[in-house]
């Protein structure tokens, strides 16, 4: 019994004051574990921190350990680089543990074990990591018209429970309307039978045990909208738009038909109308008729004709009166070699000044 009593008295943990800690995500926490040794403790000093799982069927997870004058901190990968002994030399009697950049997954029960034969002592500490409210958004539900019910909504996208919401007015009288009803758990503020006096800026504050976050929204209560006038205006505008569209389509079709008609007329060749006669064709027909008449004459009848041919070809106005016909000056033209053609050479008559043929 004396040996048991000495072993208990020889080793004792002195940090027994606080056993529960609540911290916000991202912060730092120090889990205390101070102890006192005596001359009776002769064995090697071992300090061990373990995480006790919530499920009793799972084994304890070693986090960090001091043994044989060395520190071993590679057992728990989830906290690698985020944990350390508060005192670099735990032999001084301080085996406290620092956890940096806390995460919500770090929530759990931690146990500090100190061994120095023949004494053994341990202490459990409960750590809760809470998330501050964040990304809080405000919105308005319902019609912002006079006489209507309006609901102001507030919700945080992040944050550990229990979250609490509170609304306040930051403009005008800075007091909530008398008809307002607030639900702190859901963050909804109901404004019944809204009036223009309710207009203004409203602020919502979301909070839990480790922090707060807030957002604002602008409420503008207006008279009811004349929906009948809006519908009538929309109908009239639609009809006018259809009329303008129909007119544009008609103009485009008309222009297209005109271009098509001009193209057809331009390429149309009428076979029932003969082409117009030119001066050269009229003259050629006249000369041909005279040659046919002269061909029937005998050589004896051609003695009185001059050998000088026409110097000019008569025009379409050949059948004018002798007084109106112009006088043509004779010119010498070489006669064609008719012997090669198998015909009798003839002389082309000339016209005198009085218009008679000689």
UniProtKB/TrEMBL annotation:
One of the record's GO molecular function terms: cell adhesion molecule binding
Gene Ontology biological process terms in this record: homotypic cell-cell adhesion
GO CC annotations on file: adherens junction; basolateral plasma membrane; bicellular tight junction; intercalated disc
Alphabetically ordered keywords of this record: Cell adhesion, Cell junction, Cell membrane, Disulfide bond, Glycoprotein, Immunoglobulin domain, Membrane, Receptor, Repeat, Signal, Tight junction, Transmembrane, Transmembrane helix
A Pfam family: Ig_2
Domain of life where this protein originates: Eukaryota
Membrane topology: Single-pass type I membrane protein
SUPFAM superfamilies, per the entry: Immunoglobulin
Region of interest (Disordered), residue spans: 266-334
Chief site of localization: membrane
Subcellular localization: Basolateral cell membrane; Cell junction, Adherens junction; Cell junction, Tight junction
Listed Polar residues bias regions: 278-314
InterPro entries, per database record: EJ_Adhesion_Regulator, Ig-like_dom, Ig-like_dom_sf, Ig-like_fold, Ig_sub, Ig_sub2, Ig_V-set
SMART domains in UniProt: IG, IGc2
Transmembrane region(s): 228-253
Domain spans labelled Ig-like: 9-128, 133-222
Listed name of the protein: Ig-like domain-containing protein
Organism: Buteo japonicus
Source taxonomy: Eukaryota, Metazoa, Chordata, Craniata, Vertebrata
């Amino acid at each position: 019994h004396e040996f048991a009593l000495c072993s208990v008295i020889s080793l004792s943990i002195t940090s027994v004051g606080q056993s529960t800690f609540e911290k916000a995500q991202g912060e730092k926490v120090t889990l205390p574990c101070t102890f006192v040794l005596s001359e009776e403790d002769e064995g090697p000093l071992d300090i061990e921190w373990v995480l006790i799982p919530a499920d009793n069927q799972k084994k304890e997870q070693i986090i960090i350990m001091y043994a044989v004058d060395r520190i071993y901190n590679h057992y728990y990968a989830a906290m690698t680089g985020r944990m350390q002994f508060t005192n670099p030399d735990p032999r001084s009697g301080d085996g406290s543990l620092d956890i940096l950049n806390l995460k919500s997954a770090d929530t759990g029960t931690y146990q500090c074990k100190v061994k120095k034969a023949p004494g053994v002592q341990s202490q459990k500490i409960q750590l809760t990591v809470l998330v501050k409210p964040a990304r809080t958004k405000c919105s308005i539900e319902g019609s912002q018209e006079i006489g209507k019910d309006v609901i102001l909504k507030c919700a945080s996208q992040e944050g550990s429970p229990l979250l609490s919401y509170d609304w306040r007015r930051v403009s005008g009288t800075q007091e909530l309307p008398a008809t307002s009803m607030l639900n702190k758990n859901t963050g909804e503020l109901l404004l019944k039978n809204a009036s223009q006096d309710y207009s203004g800026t409203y602020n919502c504050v979301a909070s839990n045990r480790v922090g707060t976050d807030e957002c604002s929204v602008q409420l503008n209560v207006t008279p009811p909208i004349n929906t009948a006038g809006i519908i009538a205006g929309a109908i009239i505008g639609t009809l006018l738009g259809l009329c303008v569209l129909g007119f544009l389509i008609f103009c485009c079709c008309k222009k297209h038909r005109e271009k098509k008609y001009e193209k057809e007329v331009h390429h149309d060749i009428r076979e029932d109308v003969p082409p117009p006669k030119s001066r050269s064709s009229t003259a050629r027909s006249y000369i041909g008729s005279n040659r046919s008449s002269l061909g029937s004459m005998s050589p004896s009848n051609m003695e009185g004709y001059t050998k000088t041919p026409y110097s000019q070809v008569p025009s379409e106005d050949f059948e004018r009166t002798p007084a109106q016909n112009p006088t043509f000056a004779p010119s010498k033209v070489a006669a064609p070699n008719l012997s090669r053609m198998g015909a009798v050479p003839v002389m082309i008559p000339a016209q005198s000044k009085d218009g008679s043929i000689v």
